[in-house]
Amino acid sequence: MKSILLAAAFALIVNSASAHEYKAGSIEIKHPWARATPKGSEVGGGYMTLTNTGSEPDRLIGGSNAVAGKFEIHEMSMDGGVMKMRMMPKGIEIKPGQTVELKPGSYHLMFIGLKQRFEQGKRVKGTLQFEKAGTVEVEYAVEAIGGTPRKGQ
Description:
Layout: H1 2-18, E1 21-24, E2 27-35, E3 43-52, E4 58-65, E5 68-79, E6 82-87, E7 92-94, E8 99-102, E9 107-114, E10 123-130, E11 134-143
Parallel strand pairs: 2-11
Antiparallel strand pairs: 1-2, 2-3, 3-8, 3-9, 4-7, 4-10, 5-6, 5-9, 10-11
């Protein structure tokens, strides 16, 4: 019985340590993450899921990353078989009831001018700035190079 309780407590600690969520006004921010970067890399990417639970649209308009000189919001798309990436100077709108996923090959954050590499298993502090909900501090969980988070994180 004691070992079952210890296993359950350990599972709870592991799940709460890996899954992380934040809230800014009516915006829910689920599992901000980044991929590990190779030594010498000057850029990294950030990803997460944003859900607007309110009745008014909001917009992700900026942010910061503790180890990057610059923070940009980008979109990747395919055009005639060519992948294109463009900066989104007005950010990303999140309509009421809408969920927007920032993920590889789609909307994502670019961290430019990295002062140190992102190391797998660590976390990197940053902020997100929303037009209406304001600024919220987050931590990006660093996954493997080329990796993605496991389901439930």
